[in-house]
Design goal:
Helix content: over 70%
Largest sheet: 3 strands, mixed
Low-confidence stretches: 1-10
Radius of gyration: 22 Å
Distance between the termini: 54 Å
Number of strands: 3
Strand content: under 5%
Length: 316
């Protein structure tokens, strides 16, 4: 595909998302794959939301957070995947500056609560396992609601400022973004101005909203595993570890790819690598989330069986 890279900077009003155009023969196949993935994300996470809201046995802080996390996954992927599907289907790679800015803002404003909510879920497991006698007192409904609200709104002012800062840059030489969405690192690579403070800001946000929650999660699970080894029965240890391991798998997929992508120095970017890493935290983690939590959780499986039984009875 031939892309015009001659850009009149004074009239720059759109970018071109390369996406996966380096594989022109695979566009239809990729469209089908990502469509199936997106539909599974909507169905799987939607099912978790319905189950955690409708089943009386799942009205606990752990499943309250899980339901919110599933809803967040739907919103998070919806900021990226529908536009990617549109580009693959229409072969129209152009995106206006306004649309690009809106996508960047919503992507990050939804990614921040994702990392914070994972930390909250880890803290919830820490209190449940390490301080079981105080669990209902600490993790009461008011506290859980306040934690979720804090996760959702805490990053909004910073991300709003970050978005304004990036789109205040001057772009030169090309309007082609070598990515499938408006990624902040790809945008800064097109700037002909000094992006030092923008990069510092990105690293600072990564530390604040990714590294810091990641360390809190590691701290929580270190204490959890110490407590698990002190449990008197093998059954108790196995149940506690099974509950925590699901969260650890999701966390590992998300944090592993996101931290590598955003802490990688701008000068050392390898073409295509950032797109592969981005696929992990934008599509694969939301896809695996309901599978991991449902297939490894007996309470969720029982709730699903109850729900399907009710639907079967209603049909009859």
């Amino acid at each position: 595909m031939e892309i015009n890279i001659e850009v009149n900077l004074s009239h720059l009003n759109e970018f071109t998302l390369l996406g996966f155009s380096d594989h022109p023969n695979l566009q239809n196949i990729l469209f089908g794959i990502f469509l199936v993935i997106y539909l599974n994300i909507l169905i799987g996470n939607g099912l978790i939301i319905i189950i955690t809201k409708s089943d009386a046995a799942l009205q606990t802080p752990m499943y309250f957070f899980l339901g919110n996390f599933a809803f967040l996954e739907i919103c998070y992927t919806s900021a990226i995947v529908p536009r990617m599907l549109y580009d693959l289907w229409t072969r129209n790679k152009n995106i206006s500056l306004l649309a690009c800015a809106v996508q960047l803002f919503f992507f990050f404003v939804l990614a921040v609560p994702e990392t914070l909510l994972m930390a909250v879920m880890a803290y919830d497991r820490y209190v449940a396992i390490c301080k079981p006698l105080y669990y209902t007192l600490i993790m009461n409904h008011k506290m859980c609601t306040q934690l979720v609200i804090a996760c959702w709104i805490s990053g909004v002012p910073i991300i709003l400022g970050q978005t304004y800062q990036v789109f205040s840059l001057s772009f030169c030489n090309s309007n082609v973004l070598n990515h499938f969405y408006c990624d902040i690192s790809s945008l800064m690579m097109l700037s002909c101005g000094d992006t030092f403070w923008n990069e510092v800001s990105v690293y600072a946000d990564t530390v604040l909203f990714a590294i810091f929650p990641f360390l809190l999660i590691l701290s929580s699970y270190t204490r959890i595993f110490i407590s698990i080894h002190k449990l008197p029965t093998v059954t108790g240890r196995s149940k506690a570890f099974s509950t925590c391991s699901s969260h650890l798998i999701v966390m590992g997929l998300f944090y592993g790819s996101a931290i590598i992508a955003y802490l990688q120095p701008k000068a050392s970017y390898i073409s295509g690598i950032e797109k592969i890493l981005s696929l992990f935290y934008t599509t694969l983690t939301p896809l695996f989330n309901p599978l991991i939590y449902s297939l490894r959780n007996k309470d969720v499986i029982m709730a699903m069986k109850k729900l399907f039984s009710k639907l079967r009875v209603m049909k009859e």
